[in-house]
Amino acid sequence: MFRKCEYVPTLETDGLILRELEASDADDLQEWFCLKEMYTYWGTPAPREGFQVADLFIDPRPHVKRKPDKGFMWGMVEKETGKVIGIMEIFDVERERVGTVGYRVSPNRWRKGYCSEALQRVIKFAYTETKLDRLWTDVDVNNIASNRVVEKCGFILEGTIRHGKFGSRFCDYNTWGLLREDFEKLEP
Hints:
- The chain is an alpha+beta fold.
- The protein is about 20% helix and about 30% strand.
- It has four helices and eight strands.
- It has helices at about 25-30, 115-130, 145-150, 180-185, and strands spanning about 10, 15-20, 70-80, 85-95, 100-105, 135-140, 155-165, 170-180.
- It has an eight-stranded mixed sheet.
- The radius of gyration is 16 Å and the shape is globular.
- The model has no long low-confidence stretch (mean pLDDT about 90).
């Protein structure tokens, strides 16, 4: 199930609109969300064959009262096509101070700069419109493109975990962090 966030502002970049995901986005997501190559470095296996993304918009236990999530999850909408081509999120927010960044984008949009574009906008939002002081993420050492994205966006390599647990598998992964003070040095 997709997390229901307390507040998800709409953000814009030159090529993207970042907005809350809606059930009507299921068809766009279905085109790429379950592809095996999406999970090469994700740390979890791809969904089973026949999985319907629309099911992620349905609460399996609607009778359970849930607190809204303090994080943020955006659908990355390509302005040119109006299609949801990716997901960008800040999750596991602790005391409104620290959050983990995660993203994924359709393989047919890889190497077009969309992740960097969206992440830069999300970082600016985090450090100008929230109390967050630290963003961080873990990236499989073999995921050259994703390591490059976070580095390009100003994250600092804080270390490499060797043979660590990364989702449901074990591998070497890099831990990257970006503090508010790092962001302030980057901004003109």
